[in-house]
Amino acid sequence: MPSDVEFRRLLIDLDDEMSNDERKRFIFLLGNDIPKRKRDEPLVDIFTILIDRGRISESNCNYLVELLERTKLTALAYKVASYSTKHTPSTSISTVLESSQPTDNTNVSSTGTIDNVPKDTPTLAELVNDINSEDSMILSESEQNTPTDIKPMTVQPDLASMFLYLENIDLKVFENDTWSDDFLKKINVNIHPYEYQRELVQSAIQAGNTIICLRTGGGKTLVAALLLKYYSIKKMALSKTEETKFLGFFIVPRRAMLKQIFEKLKTIGNLRILACDEHYDITKYLKSYDVIICTPQKLLDCLKAKTIFMSDIDLLCYDECHDTVVRNQYIGIMQYIMCRDVDHIPSVNSLPIIIGLTAVVGLHRSSPLHITNHLTVLCATFNCFTITSVLKEDNEAELEQYVCRTSEDEIICITKQKKFDMLRLSIEKELRNLILQLFLSKDTNPLRIFPEKDIDMNGYEQNLEMLKQSEQKKQQFPSVILINYILAIYRHLRSLADLTPDLVLSDLKDYFEMIYKSREHPIAVDTLIYNKCQSLLKTKLTQLEESEQILLNPKLDKLVELLKKHTEKPNSRALILVERTFYAQKICEFLGNHIELKCTIKPCWLVSQNGPDSKKSNKKEDSVLIDFRNGVYNVMISTDVVRASLDIPECSLVLRYDFVPDSIGTVQARVRARRTNCVYYLITTKDSQNYIKELDSRQCEQDLKEVLEIWKQIPSHEFKERVVEKQTSLIKEWSESLTKALATERIVSENTELIGDVLCRACGYHLGKLSRLRQYEQSYFISDHDFYNRIEEKLLPEPKEYVATLVTGKALCGSKNCRAKLGCIQMLKHHSSISPIYPLKCESIKIKLFEKENGNETMILKKQWKQMLFKIPPLEISCSENDEDIYYDAYDVVQTDV
Ligand SMILES: [Zn+2]
């Protein structure tokens, strides 16, 4: 029997992992279960006796778990318990599931992205986004639904420079010749591009569709901007009519990059450019702008809704076209060009030019064959048959000379301090044990859930997130509570390497207290876990205090030292980049309270804007940036590489605090540092993941070079053949999945009358009927005059004011044993009669949808409202404001709420 073999292997593992002492203690505890004369035998024999006597078996490990727990071998006990949960026929468990769970979960198609075949589990990308967007361990004040004051960024060239004398421009020069100052003046370009950039532009024009490879810092965006200009001039020059208009899209993978790309494209002159953030309707701007910068999803939505047609677009530029996170959206757009046999796709008369931009073909240590394959797929995906890179020797030399490499940054490796490390490891161990014990105990983990991964493995956190989502779907509230606690402990555990033990433990304690106390009637599991955690944390904190040897983190010490030296210079600014919002906040607190720094350092911190659903920048955040620029603060700690390093010329020190961002971030930080000659450091330790990651990203630069060398060896016609072949199979694959996805979508959207319920994602508490769900601008809420009874209002001491609304508080789950945050309370200034509304955060709710056709019930969990497969009706604002069904009296709510 194969499962028996697995069980025996598990026992062998136990044997391997026990020390001699532990083995002795374990056997000692067995007592009379083992005959005296056998007690000195190897553990394998002891296990054999236990199996023969029926004490342990493949289907019953309880005895073994108990013994191991008593021997204080928590990790091993955990291992056996999680094994046995996976392998025992789950009779008792499944009945629990069924009785408390009337929903049929077998056909759940909830996490499927719109452009793809539905899948059951979230993709890694979704998880990464998820984690980025709720990176903080603190409840953040700003919300997804917080209205914004940002207008779309637009540029309209002033009239003087607007007009190009098209007849004077020789496109042949643009295409083939050197560019004199006179020529550049004619096309109204005020920057003189490098020769290597000219080579790239001209090769790209030759190639038509192409992927431009240029290493970080080389100025790809300028190359793209020049191409946009070329194609727009060409179109205008060739056209005979007045109405001819150029339309290009510049697609960026992250919203945070909108501004930065916008600033760069702006410098090119004549083009009317618009950076379109999530909440603006692109279609309104099509006629008045030449280039629209947006995220792929934005364009994809328009193509899907048929408000934009591929035929209308002259040029599509994909930034960071290798980016795997947005790969599906990029493909989604390409499907509108390539999957012409699918019914839904409108026919395309004229194809847009495709330009892909990339700096990373990160494939080191791959075989040449692998590399060629990768390039083939990349090209096939973007309908390109060639790659454009700097080939001329002179130009390569120029690139070397003028564009410096990230490898010039100084890495400061902190040497280990034995005392600190011992303390850190011991605390880590206790927190790790706490996590294992919470999973192990039948009281705190009544439904016996275990994550697939071990706590020391990479991706443990994502694994927990995934488990949480599946428990939410199954409506298992106790498990959700358990995982929430564990996630917090785990995140804090990891931060021990970067912060002081005292900061970490006291924050965890306060956090648990805040969360727990917000629930009037916590469920039994909640209380149990809470008490367990608090008692451990209290003990540890007292121990730390009593030991009187307050140990700081050596990395923090180094930071303090560098800052001390740096702030001696007049009017200096330092930027510290960290991995998590939590670190930013805590380090800011730490520096602010540091005795030696108190007089010289004025720290502030800035929240990240990354992630599709994260908070929008509001006045307060922007004022932090302005105050930093003006010198009100002289040290800024931030997680947002892109925004933080936007044009702060005063900044003279950029310091990454054990933080190695993705390639984009590195570029940003680099470009800035180079421009202002500021010092640039990475603080890390030699054994850290980040040190390896940093070396890796340096390797990437080297790789690009090698990848291009390999590519150059392939004859161009041969490469083209391979791409064509790959493309045929891709198109087939895409068309199939697209047809399938569209069919599902149709079923859901034809089901016009929505039957179902909106529930709290954490606990399943009923919030309202799905048919009452309404959309008003960016807010989605339940329009029901009874709604305030379903939630707990928590008012802010002072309302936050925005252009059209006031946010007066938070809305928490109405269940007294949950109190999860659901959204905010909003007063609409122009519609006071319907205020307040309670916009719900999509990530805090789930929808139980009843399908009429087949009688199935589906649980839908999405990250964004826009991803819902059905249309949510807009709020009808009628003239008669007495319509009781929709409107309710604001004062009613305020007065009854206590
Ligand atoms: Zn709830």
From TrEMBL:
SUPFAM superfamilies: DEATH domain, P-loop containing nucleoside triphosphate hydrolases. The keyword Ribonucleoprotein does not apply. Keywords: ATP-binding, Immunity, Innate immunity, Nucleotide-binding. Residues 555-731 form the Helicase C-terminal domain. This is RNA helicase. GO terms for cellular component: cytoplasm. PANTHER family: ANTIVIRAL INNATE IMMUNE RESPONSE RECEPTOR RIG-I (PTHR14074:SF16), HELICASE WITH DEATH DOMAIN-RELATED (PTHR14074). The keyword ATP-binding applies. It catalyses: ATP + H2O = ADP + phosphate + H(+). Belongs to the helicase family. RLR subfamily. It holds the Pfam family DEAD. Residues 744-882 form the RLR CTR domain. Residues 96-114 have a biased composition (Polar residues). GO terms for molecular function: ATP binding; nucleic acid binding; RNA helicase activity. Residues 6-82 form the DED domain. Residues 96-116 are annotated as: Disordered. Residues 201-359 form the Helicase ATP-binding domain. It comes from Rotaria socialis. InterPro entries: DEAD/DEAH_box_helicase_dom, DEATH-like_dom_sf, DED_dom, Helicase_ATP-bd, Helicase_C-like, P-loop_NTPase, RLR_C_sf, RLR_CTR.
